[in-house]
Design goal:
The protein has helices at residues 12-19, 25-36, 42-46, 73-76, 145-148, 179-188, 202-213, 243-258, 273-282, 296-302, 304-309, 312-326, 350-366, 392-408; strands at residues 39-40, 80-85, 90-96, 105-110, 113-118, 121-127, 151-152, 156-162, 224-229, 264-267, 286-288, 334-337, 372-375. The chain has a domain at 12-127. It starts with 11 loop residues before the first helix and ends in a 30-residue tail after the last helix. Helix content is 33%, strand content 15%. It is built from 14 helices and 13 strands. Iron/sulfur cluster is lined by residues 165, 167, 173-174, 177, 179, 230-231, 269, 305.
Length: 438
């Protein structure tokens, strides 16, 4: 490892590399960026031409409000970046950009290079993703193609079919989630933010996917289609009253136009097995009913709508039954990594919180379910907004536990999120658990 320029300040990546010698340095930096967010200077935004800017707005996925950020940062910043090289010789690592004006991390322009800095000390080079050719194409009414489907990590076609959630209010909405709040906020904004259409137009969606599928540059090739949205518990515009019936026409239309080469990951609330079978037969290749947190007491508090409409036991039982329908690697519910420590009812120490997360990994993975982690971004429009940042120790220890359990059960990568298993290989930018190993 090369040493950075002499300074009295020791970056976190260095102190934690001593504390966790078995953890790749890329994992440490990535988790720290995801939990604390990052700022970006206008110079650093202007320094690069034609990069892929923010176009994903299902959740705000930012720590600062849109209105708190300077100028049009919330739409002009890169959607995600690769960090690499720098004084620690880091391997290329994708990470989502979580905007936080107050973060100690900032992307700055130093000697003509965009660099991730911590308190002004350069840590790694920040490489912005190139803008794909389909960005900027327009439908007749001026809607741009990326407003229909953004590309994430140069690989994921990210589709929100229903961008609201029927779980409503304090008694139903998940406490870490700002989907409904964010939709209300977006409706107040103008300009480059995605159109706040609640229901995606099927014909437009297929048209954009068709264009994405023809991308000649392998670096920007669509590896996977991820379809998601809020929960559905009643009829939408007089039509389907459940996520399977609502989404199947989209899936069938995609398969008809694109064939079966590209996987489709479908994220919905837990479904009965007969509906899941119909989704699979229509063409999805993975189904992820996000459990969010394994501890039953916390699930009931944090995801009250899920508990009310489905219930913890049914949710977990269906996850396990889903493996027989979808196959191993194709059932991968999201867990919000760190929400175990949410105040006031979460665990008040890292050791117990990690033990709880680990119990979940063990139980689910022993049944062929591969939970995937998303580091908790504490968004201002949520009911947990006042929580302190999740300790880095929790995130790193949870990543270690996840990786060891995944290896123990000889499980495949969870399908539809690209390669994983080492820094320099993984694509998924919402957790560093996929960068463990190597
Ligand atoms: S089910 Fe929960 S996490 Fe999903 S969109 Fe609704 S409130 Fe958000």
């Amino acid at each position: 490892m090369n040493q950075p320029a002499t300074t009295s300040f020791t970056p976190t990546i260095e102190t934690y590399a001593k504390k966790y010698p078995e953890v790749p340095m890329e994992v440490i930096l990535k988790e720290d960026l995801l939990r604390l967010g990052i700022g970006i200077t206008m110079d650093a935004i202007k320094a690069v031409k034609n990069f892929r800017q923010q176009a994903y707005y299902l959740f705000s996925y930012n720590i600062s409000e849109h209105t708190e950020l300077d100028g049009d940062t919330s739409s002009s910043a890169p959607e995600d970046i690769i960090f690499r090289d720098g004084p620690y010789g880091l391997r290329r690592t994708w990470v989502r950009i979580v905007l936080n004006k107050e973060s100690p991390y900032q992307i700055e322009l130093i000697d003509g290079k965009t660099m991730v800095c911590q308190d002004g000390v350069p840590i790694a080079e920040a490489v912005y993703p190139e803008k794909p050719d389909y960005y900027g194409k327009e439908f007749e009414d001026g809607t741009r193609y990326e407003q229909v489907i953004p590309l994430l990590y140069d690989s994921y076609a990210f589709i929100t079919t229903f961008r609201a959630c029927h779980y409503w209010g304090d008694k139903e909405e998940c406490k870490f989630c700002d989907i409904n709040y964010n939709l209300r906020e977006l409706k107040k904004l103008t300009g480059d933010h995605v159109t706040a259409d609640a229901i995606k137009n099927k014909d437009r969606l297929v048209e954009v996917l068709d264009v994405m599928n023809q991308e000649p540059d392998p670096n920007k090739r669509m590896l996977t289609i991820i379809m998601t949205g809020g929960s559905i518990v009643r009829s939408i515009k007089g039509g389907p009253d459940n996520a399977a019936d609502f989404n199947i026409p989209y899936v069938e239309a995609i398969r008809e136009r694109l064939g079966r080469r590209v996987p489709i990951v479908m994220i919905t609330e837990s479904q009965p097995m007969d509906r899941l079978t119909r989704l699979r037969d229509a063409g999805i290749t993975s189904h992820n009913a996000n459990l969010e947190v394994f501890n039953e007491r916390l699930f009931k508090w944090i995801a009250p709508g899920k508990d009310h409409y489905i219930g913890y036991d049914t949710w977990v039982r269906r996850l396990i039954e889903s493996v027989d329908i979808m196959g191993e690697g194709r059932v991968s519910p999201n867990m919000v990594s760190g929400v175990e420590m949410a105040k006031p009812y979460g665990f008040d120490n890292v050791k117990d919180a990690v033990a709880s997360a680990k119990e979940g990994f063990e139980y689910l993975m022993s049944h062929g379910v591969i939970p995937h982690l998303d580091t908790w971004c504490i968004e201002p429009g949520t009911r947990l907004a006042d929580n302190p940042t999740v300790p880095l120790d929790f995130l790193l220890q949870a990543d270690i536990a996840w990786y060891e359990t995944w290896r123990k059960y000889k499980l495949p990568p969870f399908e539809g999120y690209g390669p994983m298993g080492s820094p320099g290989i993984a694509v998924y930018g919402n957790t560093a658990s996929v960068d463990m190993g190597g």
